[in-house]
Design brief:
With 790 residues, this protein is of the alpha+beta class. It is built from 18 helices and 34 strands. The strands form eight sheets. Strands 1, 2, 4, 5, 6, 7, 8, 10, 11, 12, 15 and 17 form a twelve-stranded antiparallel β-sheet that branches. A five-stranded antiparallel β-sheet has the order 3-9-16-13-14, with no helix packed on it. A hairpin with a 2-residue loop joins β24 and β25. α7 packs antiparallel against α8, α8 runs parallel beside α11 and α11 runs antiparallel to α12. The longest helix has 21 residues. The radius of gyration is 26 Å and the shape is globular.
Length: 790
Amino acid sequence: MITHRRLLAVVLVVAFIAAACSGGAGHRAAGGSESSAVVSPSTLVDPFMGTGVGGTAVGHIDDSPAADLPFGMIQWGPDTAPHRADGGGYSSGDTAISGFSLTHLNGPGCAGLGDVPILPTVGAIAGSPETTTDRFTHESERAAPGRYAVRLTDPGVDVALAVTTRSGIGRFVFPPTASANLLVKVADSAVPAQRAHAVVVGDREIDGWVESGQFCDAIGTYRLAFVARFDRPFTRVATWRGTASQPGARSVDGPHTGIAITFDTRSSRTVGMSVGVSFVSIAGARANLAAELHGRGLGAVERAGTARWDAMLGHIAIAGGRAADRRTFYSAFYRSLLHPNVFSDDDGRYPGMDGRVHVARGWTQYTNFSEWDVYRSQIPLVALVAPDTVGQMVHSLLADYEQIGRLPKWAYTDVETGEMNGDAADPIIAEAYAFGARNFDANEALQAMVRGATTVGTGLGWDVERQDLDEYLARGWVQVDRRDRTSFDYTIGGSETLEYAIDDSAIATFASAIGDAHTAATFRARAGNWRHLFNPATGYLAARDADGRFPNGPAFQGSPLPGIGQDGWEEGNSIQYTWSVPQDLRGLFDAMGGNAVAVRKLDSFFRELNTSRKQPYDWAGNEPAFGIPWEYDFAGAPWRTQDVVRQIATTLYSATPDGEPGNDDLGALASWYVWAAIGMYPETPGRADLVLSTPMFPSITIRRGSAPPIAISAPRAPADRYVTTLALRGMRAPAPCAGRSYSCAWLPASVLQTGAQLDFTLGSTPNRQWGAAPAAAPRSLTPPRAASGS
């Protein structure tokens, strides 16, 4: 059972397992000693991690405990009331369920998906079925990767759900009654639908679709089709529109609509349901259902899902350490593998962003790319263990490019929402290639990246690949006083500038990797545009006004520094964004006055670990902060990286509902924890060099297909956190790092091809010499210097 939840009385446990969870659904106690390897990592996953609150600066983390397979199209699970959290639909503080919807997003921060909730009830159907809820207790919930179950105390129904990639199977065990109902809330998506359609087919099937959208207020809708079949005939059917019910009607259209079906369970209490989904058509949903379930029962689908998850999670094998850390590790790894999502049907058909149906031949089309959030850690993590999968995701982004003429910024179903700043498709593509993905057209990818970085969008308003590109091309930076975004309460010229410089660095790295030296040189120079924002009067970066001046006056209470504030930054402030120069940390630290100055500023920054955009300290729960703890490695103080990374990992993350410090953002935060736990991190977006911290487990093995594994040994972990020495075997060390022991706080990307054995000797006090020599620092791109203040 889930350790953070109270145990049920023995009678309830036995009854619940027998009625709702046969086939082994739910958590089981982790077996093995402290030093034994984890045999079935899925048994350590807690799907309730992140279903609570991530701190005062964020509120709900927005994760879902829904049944899901790696990157699956369907995520079948509960939406709770009254706090139907954005995206995930679930709040650990709620005690009512409004339905078990077929799709979810994990931690997006905006309402999305949550399509076609299905709710069992008993007795007379309420006058407003769409707002009907059932009571439940969290102690009665059981969840594991690929499955979810709960006992609804009122009306006394046991629910068990399991899924394949595009279909699911449910079992509902009712009390003996002539009025066992299932309310199919066709139009009750997370963003309430204006268009929906459902029809009863015979006495055992409901077909339909829902059209929803407006994710984060973006323009555009998607359509999800479904086919739901039951293993017994219903005895009554009714439709509803709002509070008006129509008994006997067999079809319904429009908003606030649904279908209620009733079964007689006096002689047989169990109702079985199977459902297929498709973003193309009802026929596609029916074909997906037939192709994936093959007539299997709940137990067989659960076992297949466990096998899928064990195989995926088994790419990183850990042994030893604390039991709680092992649970947090695999729970976070699980959360890192839920998005992006399969979007094409079993036959390859999918709706394109151009409004047409396309066929993915030889690859799977994916969608739901929270690009600004995931490019720093989640995409590199998936590429580390499954580069071919990430290659298909890049292929999907290129298919979007072919359809709409630009790489999407935040692909949501078949809608380009244009959310967030920057051009994060660039580092995503470069990372995929750097980590070994070769199953996409690299030349087309570079062409798409260069086009987005050089072609100013016209007539497209806010929804262009690079907003304000004209300013960036003309001056090398984007002004802070936005003239065309009057609906925003803050402006983001500063963060746009830094994001574009990171993107340009990724283009340069990728171009160099595929042999285009001219493009590499051009964009390597542009990657130095961050220097335009460096204010020598403060030693920090600042957004600039239209006339090129830095803003005046402190924005933080008690701050002695002028020009340090919030205006000009996406979800952050100038101090938090000052460190967003991962491509040229050497240049940043030199501009500040050297390593000693940079370390002092970092130490001040980490006085607090999870504040908000209103404070001049670390906001670990938001993406711009992800790489900052690792920057001590570049400043000759790797022991401070070891200290700060461990503090964040152990104080802000746990396998509990409140166990993440912010919105998970489709696996972004969870993946940061995985990197922290294995003691390495892809600091520079678009590159596969890995900067080092300290492993949290005595033994870690990373397996990537046919490549040799990366094996890590740290016998004194996690009790000791500081690196005393490191021995590297199985690969050639870079020249500055070679010697009797490995002296650098980073690994070159070649480790991904050669594999290696890393043997850490850890101590309880810092070794201030290891990794501290200037020649041992991780590599910086060091672009050509821009004219200061120009």
